[in-house]
Design a protein that fits this description.
By secondary structure, the protein is an alpha+beta fold. It contains 20 helices and eight strands. The strands form three sheets. It has a four-stranded mixed beta sheet with strand order 6-5-7-8. A two-stranded antiparallel sheet has the order 1-4.
């Protein structure tokens, strides 16, 4: 890997465009290096993972809206498929629909470093583009490898949330780069597409703050849609604002820290294999990633309390000692009263570690629907326990969160449960059980199991088998429409009826 220093440059400075970060990204995207077998295997896993969570969300309201919008944009030639239904539709609208389905339940892969990300968000727009252009499975593999590589390394080098910029600002450029790889575009065209994609996908983090709405699911899907359109424009010769990151009125100067800040972004050298996807991890539980290890810890603590004859009704307080991110984004440090409100939206509750820990401790299990149901959130005993839980930042957990040493990088914390009689029970967990370094790391078997579980009753068994056979043969696949998954008519009929829009 090569570290690139990225800083603001005044317009009068001599700053050749070959030194721009967008050009460095384009060089990585245009590199014809082969994709290693381990990367290919994980790409297949993540396509299965995305399909699994999309099936679980396909009949939900926001996903239904996105699907209907896509269906209003059919095409007679080319086009892309939309999860759940037959037909081909305009690629950018299919990307919006499928990206929303994948993101809706906050249940797919993650990478956390200086910034946050869900790199699996690259897959829907890349797949839609590949289907539209009639590309092969090998082409798609190359594009996804690039998408992950760019997003993961931007996340390592450039913190967005510190300045309240949403993490999808790293996604637009990564999708544009991945499309460039798939299509074999030249560096100059990819450079312009990366710049346009960043410029059009920068937004604030309010989509994940306060009254969290369905836009949380749409935000990355919209970024993917914008990246497709950016590539389309630049292939026609249209340019982008430049230098997009380093300009005097550019991204770093006014969206991030200031013209004085220098960022260090690692990127592969020419000829270096793209392996960043191997540093990422998926979710066993449908909740924000920082809740994964605490959920597993709550399961273990439930057993511990039972063995000791202790009751949750007798708890005085629970304090979760954890990282800066967990405390300030999904913990009490966020100062969001909505995170303690039983009438809050599902999107808000899955960003409340206090709610999540209470339910996991009481139930000893987690379900993507039942654990968030209004009747579950409104149980009096749950509300009482929930409001006894608080978080505090522990500098050591913050340090481990930001460590570049994957052997010590951690996303968990320590729970201290104090009972009314003074009894104290403690436990801690650094990573989730499903994490590569956890107690039960996810492998192909677990990804398939997750798909079968979430597709059960939604997708016919024969269709499940057809999809799983197709995706596991991705390297030899020539018809990428085989990666679509169709749901039963009965399940689609259960989707909510939505008001008409423009289309």
């Amino acid at each position: 890997m090569k570290n690139h220093e990225v800083r603001t440059h005044k317009s009068a400075e001599d700053f050749p465009y070959e030194e721009h970060l967008a050009y460095k990204v384009a060089e990585v995207a245009a590199d014809p290096v082969e994709v290693p077998a381990e990367t290919t295997d994980m790409i297949i896993n993540r396509i299965i993972d995305n399909a699994a969570v999309a099936m679980a969300s396909v009949a939900r309201g926001s996903v239904t809206s996105a699907r209907v919008m896509a269906q209003a944009h059919p095409v007679s030639t080319g086009g892309a498929t939309v999860f759940g239904v037959d037909g081909t539709y305009s690629a950018e609208w299919a990307a919006l629909a499928n990206g929303t389905a994948v993101r809706e339940l906050d249940y797919h892969d993650t990478f956390l470093a200086a910034e946050y990300s869900h790199p699996g968000d690259n897959i829907p727009p890349l797949l839609a583009t590949a289907q539209h252009k009639g590309l092969s499975g090998r082409d798609l593999i190359r594009g996804i490898a690039t998408g992950y590589e760019i997003q993961v390394n931007l996340v390592k080098g450039m913190c967005l949330h510190e300045y309240k910029i949403d993490h999808v600002a790293h996604l637009g450029p990564s999708v544009a780069a991945g499309i460039g790889t798939m299509l074999g575009l030249d560096k100059d065209t990819i450079y312009q597409a990366v710049g346009q994609a960043l410029h059009t996908t920068t937004a604030t983090r309010q989509s994940r703050k306060g009254l969290i709405s369905s836009w949380k699911a749409y935000a990355p899907a919209f970024a993917g849609k914008m990246a497709i359109e950016a590539v389309d424009r630049t292939m026609r010769g249209e340019g982008a604002p430049a230098p997009i990151w380093e300009g005097e009125d550019g991204f770093i100067a006014w969206m991030l820290h200031s013209p004085e800040r220098t960022y260090t972004v690692p990127l592969p050298e020419l000829g270096e294999e793209k392996r960043a996807i191997l540093d990422t991890y998926t979710k066993e539980h449908s909740a924000e990633y920082q809740a994964q290890a605490p959920i597993d810890m709550a399961f273990a603590l439930k057993k511990t309390l039972a063995e000791k004859g202790l009751q949750t009704a007798d708890i005085e307080s629970i304090v979760l000692h954890t990282s800066h991110h967990t405390h300030y984004v999904i913990g009490t440090g966020a100062n969001d009263p909505q995170k303690m409100d039983p009438s809050a939206s599902r999107e808000t509750l899955d960003h409340s570690i206090m709610y999540i820990f209470a339910v996991a401790l009481e139930d000893g299990e987690w379900d993507h629907e039942a654990s968030y149901a209004p009747e579950r959130a409104n149980r009096p005993e749950t509300i009482e326990l929930w409001h006894k839980i608080s978080t505090v930042e522990d500098p050591e957990w913050t340090r481990r969160y930001h460590s570049n040493d994957l052997s010590e990088k951690a996303f968990g914390g320590k729970a201290v449960i104090t009972f009314k009689d003074g009894t104290v029970v403690e436990d801690e967990r650094a990573v989730a059980d499903a994490h590569p370094l956890g107690a039960r790391p996810f492998a192909r078997e677990q990804y398939i199991e997750k798909f079968r579980k979430l597709a059960n009753g939604i997708v016919d068994e024969a269709e499940q088998e057809r999809f799983l056979n197709a995706v596991q043969n991705l390297e030899n696949l020539t018809d990428l429409t085989e990666l679509n998954v169709r749901v039963t008519d009965a399940h689609l009929a259960a989707a909510p009826q939505k008001p008409e829009g423009l289309f």
